[in-house]
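Explain the record.
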Amino acid sequence: MNPAPFPIPADHICFIAAVNPRDVAAGYLDGWIDAAAAKRLVFLRRCDLRREAGEFVLLDNWAAGSPEFVELAGLIVAGWGEDPEFWWYAAVSWAFTMAAVERDRMLGQLAETYADDRLAQVAADPDGHGAAWIAEGRETYLLGRARSGEGLNWDDDSALMGTDRPEEIDEALQRGERLLGVAVIGLSLTHPDARQILPRIADVLAAAMAAGDRELCRQAVLALGHTGRLHGVTDARCLELLRQQPRGNTADDDLWSYVPHRELPWWLWRHHLPGTLRWYLWWRWVYRFEDGADWVRERLRRRNLRSGSRTGGVRPGRTGHADQSMG
């Protein structure tokens, strides 16, 4: 296999596929990823799979780039067999994140390196063949693996709290996974794009409401609150579903606290406005008065201490009174 024409960041790969040990091993040996990226992908997949991590555990036992790591990577590739199309898919996908001129240059470099007719077609027609290539790879390496359940360990709460591929939620919802709510909470905490998170929360919340699953409703509402707190946004569908939940939940409070009020509906204003008015018209001034009273008490205490230190610790007049008593 020819060496890779350009490297691909681990943070891109982890969102476009649920990589297996062969993908990481071959990517490192062929130069698609460096030692740090290989180690990061191994770590992320160990978090995804936990007890089912298998060969990822073995790879994680060695420093990336060490002779032992290289030897083990070679054994893994030999055992699994080569699949160069995974990294071609990743390379085309990475090229499509660039501006058009840079994208076309990278695709041409890819086609020249591997002399494959399909890659040549992608380079010649990025918008047609290139988009189709990405769609095919996405179906195979992302959706297909998510559909089979191999992307995450769906029996482990800790693994699901690190969910960072929204497509895993889509497929798990279709399968009716028992810990779906944990995964959607994990997605709300780990994925960087709220536009990918909110539709999944809405899908899960709608399904939970239809099934009368109160615990899944609670988890979806919690995920919505996390998204509002971390990203400062929400959307119309989530708000419409949230309106049907009992007031005073965590999402109500988080959205009111972290999303601009002008973007929130009237019913959430109606729920929170009385408390807000009480704060501004009463409690705010009560707390200020209490703070002022504390300040006055502290000033008086310090003045008394200074007065006592100037008289040797005895208040004026006390010494004379004591002398008269002794006489």
Remarks:
- Residues 318-327 have pLDDT under 50 and may be disordered.
